[in-house]
Write a structure and sequence with these properties.
By secondary structure, the chain is mainly alpha-helical. 63% of the residues lie in helices and 0% in strands. The relative contact order is 0.14.
């Protein structure tokens, strides 16, 4: 027993090395060249447009989470669940958009501060708003994204970027159209208990 007490503690081999920094390995706005069969001009145009769509989609997702937390009133439960479901679906879409930017050799916009500086979606106030206003803001953001997505899809098709075109049409447009439908139906003024 005495020998164990007199031993000097050993340094652990699995010690993390923290506080590391380095030079940026790829500046935002630059391209890594991958053999994709697309010109640098096409890839640059697509990366720029995808990053804008990514920033706006992230803002929409964040609006859904804000409204999920702040919704109130008689439709609380159904909207609380709907907003969370839509936020999760937008999160999956965000990942696909960011990965497409990276596949094209670009750098995906990622941090909240950078997204806030770039987004073109109207950001709601910090405080809680009434349900019809929350729904209207979400629908306006969806419409902005759908207009932008259709323009991007046409541009991608013209430039021969089938991968971006397919992603934007099959994922962005279809998801946003479906979410517009589900969200819009909550703004239809119909009686709840007695027919007119």
């Amino acid at each position: 027993m005495k020998t164990m007490l007199n031993k000097q503690p050993q340094r652990a081999e699995a010690q993390p090395i923290i506080g590391q920094r380095s030079n940026v390995t790829q500046e935002f706005g630059t391209l890594t060249r991958y053999p994709l069969g697309l010109s640098d001009q096409t890839r640059t145009a697509m990366v720029d447009a995808l990053n804008q769509l990514l920033a706006d989609t992230t803002t929409l997702r964040d609006m859904y989470k804000k409204h999920h937390w702040q919704v109130s009133g008689p439709t609380f439960y159904s909207l609380h669940l709907l907003f969370d479901k839509h936020a999760e679906e937008q999160t999956e879409l965000i990942d696909k958009l960011a990965e497409r930017v990276q596949i094209l050799g670009g750098v995906a916009i990622a941090m909240a501060a950078h997204i806030a500086a770039v987004t073109k979606v109207d950001v709601p106030p910090l405080g809680r708003e009434e349900v019809p206003v929350q729904l209207s803001r979400l629908l306006e953001a969806h419409e902005h994204i759908l207009i932008q997505a259709r323009t991007l899809a046409r541009g991608a098709a013209e430039l021969g970027d089938d991968g971006t075109n397919d992603l934007v049409v099959s994922e962005v447009v279809r998801l946003n159209e479906a979410q517009v439908w589900f969200t819009s139906e909550h703004l239809v003024d119909t009686p709840l208990v007695r027919a007119r």
